[in-house]
Amino acid sequence: MHSTVDVTDTDREQRRDRVFDRLDDAEVGETVAVTADRDVHPTLSQYAIARDAALDRSYEQTGPEWEVHVTKRPPEEADDPYAFDVRNLPPARRHAVLTDTFDLLEPGESFVLVNDHDPEPLYHELSSTHGDVVGWSYEQESAGEWRVEISKTGEPAADDDGATATFDVREIPKPDRHPTIHHRFANLDAGDSLDVIAPHEPNPLRREFRQQYGDGFEWEVRERDPGEVRVRITKTDADGDRSEPDDANADENADADTEDLTVVQELDVRDRPPAQRHEAIFDAYADLDAGEAFVLVNDHDPKPLYHQFEAEAGPEFRWEYRARDPGEFRVLVGRADAADPQSSPPEDVEAPF
């Protein structure tokens, strides 16, 4: 005989509270049946980390209706630190679950993140909200399995400046800067803000925001000093997500000299974790011979990549939009003969910050 807890149709916080309360009441050896409309693996892992608990799990039913039987073992059998394997979680859920897990830690506590790629962007996101109390130690770096011990080394300093997060882009690798900021902005509530610190005002990022969010944000330069600009981006109530630009501008970035390029592959990166996308794209470009191209398929405008290619790839680099539809952007990325004249860059291109 076992007790039950139903967390169907609950949000993340409600689900966590109900499961935590029921497992707190359970005795060692007791089994709790958790029914849900999604996998509760993240919630159970958070409980094991926050309560230093040992749990046995048995999946009785999986998707779309889930039933998991959870049995408490003696506390001395708990893993220390607990290994939180997120490889089976959809990439879009991982950061939210992991930042939530870090919030549950007390100073001095830790867990080991197991991921299928280098989770460095998570470090920058955690640091943006918690400052210098994020401990980060790589234990394993291998294909398909990265293990990082993440610890909370102290209490985060109180921030009365009003920003939910602060990103100093000078400390973030260039390919991760824009994706990291967009991801954090997407998780803000209306009225919340994030600060971006850059060597100069990040106008390319501002244009990306205008294109994707329309009137859904406010942009304020709060400090402007030589070599350092602080910009506050506030999420407004406006429903401004507009990833599709006006048709009149659809071809503004087209290169006139791409007709002679031979397309050798289509690279669809939509199912890849965000941290793996740039690497796959740059690898595909490196494999091109002169006169070849590939078609990149992405779920949002990959404009930040243009800035990086334009700065690093040389005059033979070519870029042409083929489609700009919600959820599907198609761009021809090519390598022309180095002797060909370089095509004109898009009108709104500036150096990446």
Question: Can you tell me about this structure?
Answer:
Helix 1 crosses helix 2 and helix 4 packs across helix 5. A hairpin with a 2-residue loop joins strand 11 and strand 12. A four-stranded mixed sheet has the order 1-2-4-3, with helices on one face. The chain is an alpha/beta fold and 353 residues long. The C terminus is likely disordered. It is 27% helix and 31% strand. 28% of the residues are buried. The chain has eight helices and 16 strands. Among the domains are: 79 residues, Translation Initiation Factor IF3; 71 residues, Translation Initiation Factor IF3, CATH 3.30.110; 89 residues, 2-Layer Sandwich (Translation Initiation Factor IF3), CATH 3.30.110.
Topology record:
Elements (H helix, E strand, L loop, with lengths): L2 E4 L5 H14 L5 E6 L4 H11 L2 E8 L4 E8 L8 E4 L5 H14 L5 E6 L4 H11 L3 E9 L2 E8 L12 E4 L5 H13 L6 E6 L4 H11 L3 E9 L2 E8 L26 E7 L5 H13 L5 E7 L4 H10 L4 E9 L2 E8 L18
